[in-house]
From TrEMBL:
Superkingdom per UniProt: Bacteria
Mur ligase central domain residues: 48-269
Reactions it catalyzes: (6R)-5,10-methylenetetrahydrofolyl-(gamma-L-Glu)(n) + L-glutamate + ATP = (6R)-5,10-methylenetetrahydrofolyl-(gamma-L-Glu)(n+1) + ADP + phosphate + H(+); 10-formyltetrahydrofolyl-(gamma-L-Glu)(n) + L-glutamate + ATP = 10-formyltetrahydrofolyl-(gamma-L-Glu)(n+1) + ADP + phosphate + H(+); (6S)-5,6,7,8-tetrahydrofolyl-(gamma-L-Glu)(n) + L-glutamate + ATP = (6S)-5,6,7,8-tetrahydrofolyl-(gamma-L-Glu)(n+1) + ADP + phosphate + H(+); 7,8-dihydropteroate + L-glutamate + ATP = 7,8-dihydrofolate + ADP + phosphate + H(+)
Protein name (Swiss-Prot/TrEMBL): Dihydrofolate synthase/folylpolyglutamate synthase
E.C. number: 6.3.2.12, 6.3.2.17
Family designation: Belongs to the folylpolyglutamate synthase family.
Length: 447
């Protein structure tokens, strides 16, 4: 008897069904009906949408809930290295990524129920999430939207405990529209009549207005960043304040000033969903939160050993101009604390605004090495990506791989170092596909 493997089952589905997105709720609704409508048998759901920060907010919400002793399921996408990362099943003492046999069985059952009908693999994997989360008891489930909101496969949840919409900016314009108001309409599609809504910090007033107007039209209890809650750094501490009072606690474990607003949105959403949050659990969450591949120091491994001696190597999968601005601001803060020359190793896919992303680093990055994203069919050729970086005012050159770039930096900088300049700060960036490949090659996949 052949043992089921989740990866084999999913790869088989990828060979049968189209890649990418086909935004509609008809196919997922049909499939869930055949499965007994598991999405109607979920623990209270926190539904998270947005262009930037939704993964971080999901990680913070999970940390807050778990710090207060609750069992929490978490669905995120895409994964970095292994499909299992999309499904974290709650357990006493903290959740764990789904075991391979459990995932393989769920995938096989969902595929059998679909009976070969037209569908996307993302829709099948979303149905797998509903099956897994309905079959394993928990106090809450945090479900991250895949793309957009209105027609995303996760948007069959009839009455979420709370909907959180994180910062909206430009991304996936081919699917969601080329104006921020149009993108906001798609994100606002997860708002359900009468269900609590939290609006995170918004860089565009037009997007914020769409979200607030939608929530008010649907008679939703509404909590808005900057009006009903806010957070800021003061004397090396994070101050969170809402209508219930004030928390004075440690700064988030996740790097970057933007994570303060992300953490605040998560706290406000957990409270809006009906879960009390105390200072002790909020502070513990700030200290324990983990979100791999987002402004993370590259763990010690096969790749990290290739760089210049004493180098500080960061990885981040942000891939649009808004993400670039947040990452650049975070690295500017690192520069204020500990000056080092900054180098980028970047790979991107062709659906992103590459020049817009690089523009955030003008005047900061000394040089950019561009690499191919071999794990994606949509990877931008490294020479073309170097041209996009130069359009943004950066010095750039194409190289064959991240390992190649690290070795070039080591050979160039170590040979010429005279002790007057500190070792470099290196950011590997531009694509979650690239960061997943880096973590795999480094031997340090998410756990």
């Amino acid at each position: 008897m052949t043992t089921l493997s989740a990866e084999r089952e999913i790869e088989r589905l990828l060979s049968l069904h189209p890649k990418g997105f086909d935004l509609s709720l008809e196919r997922i609704t049909r499939l869930l009906e055949r499965l007994g409508n598991p999405h109607l048998n979920m623990p209270p759901v926190i539904h998270v949408a947005g262009t930037n920060g939704k993964g971080s907010a999901t990680a913070f919400a999970r940390a807050v809930l778990e710090a207060s002793g609750r069992i929490v399921h978490v669905h995120t996408s895409p994964h970095l290295v292994n499909w299992h990362e999309r499904y974290r099943l709650g357990a006493e003492g903290g959740g764990k990524l789904v075991e391979d046999a459990v995932l393989a069985d769920a995938v096989a059952r969902v595929a059998e129920a679909n009976a070969g009908e037209k569908i996307t693999v993302f829709e099948i994997l979303t149905a797998v999430m509903f099956v897994l989360f309905s079959e394993h008891p928990a106090d809450a489930a945090i479900v991250e939207v895949g793309l957009g909101g209105r027609f995303d496969a996760t948007n069959v949840i009839p009455r979420p405990a709370a909907s959180l919409i994180m910062p909206i900016s430009f991304d996936h314009e081919a699917y969601l529209g080329d104006r921020v108001e149009l993108i906001a309409v798609e994100k606002a599609g997860i708002i359900k009549r009468g269900c609590p809504v939290v609006v995170g910090q918004q860089p565009f007033d037009a997007a914020r207005e769409v979200l607030v107007d939608t929530a008010e039209r649907l008679a939703c209890p509404l909590t808005v960043y900057g009006e009903d809650f806010l957070a800021f750094e003061e004397n090396g501490r994070m101050i969170y304040q809402d209508n219930d009072g004030l928390f004075d606690m440690s700064l988030p474990q996740l790097a970057g000033r933007h994570q303060i607003a992300n953490a605040a949105a998560a706290i406000a959403t957990v409270k809006a969903a009906g879960f009390p949050v105390g200072l002790r659990s909020a502070e513990a969450a700030m200290e324990r939160v983990v979100w791999p591949g987002r402004l993370q120091r590259l763990p010690k491994g096969a790749l990290s050993e290739l760089g210049p001696e004493g180098a500080e190597i960061w990885i981040d999968g942000g891939h649009n101009p808004g993400a670039g601005e947040a990452i650049a601001e975070a690295l500017a803060s690192e520069e204020d604390r500990s000056p080092r020359p900054l180098f980028l190793i970047a790979g991107m896919i062709n659906t992103k605004d590459q020049t817009g992303y690089f523009r955030a680093f003008e005047g900061m990055a000394r040089h950019v090495y561009t690499v191919p994203v071999e794990s994606s069919d949509a990877g931008v050729p490294n020479a073309e990506l170097a041209a996009r970086a130069m359009e943004a005012g950066l010095s750039a050159e194409p190289v064959h791989s991240v390992a190649n770039a690290l070795k070039l930096l080591r050979d160039t900088l170590d040979a010429g170092r005279d002790g007057t300049e500190p070792p470099p700060r290196i950011l590997i960036c531009g694509s979650l596909y690239l960061i997943g490949a880096v973590l795999a090659e480094n031997g340090t996949p998410p756990r």
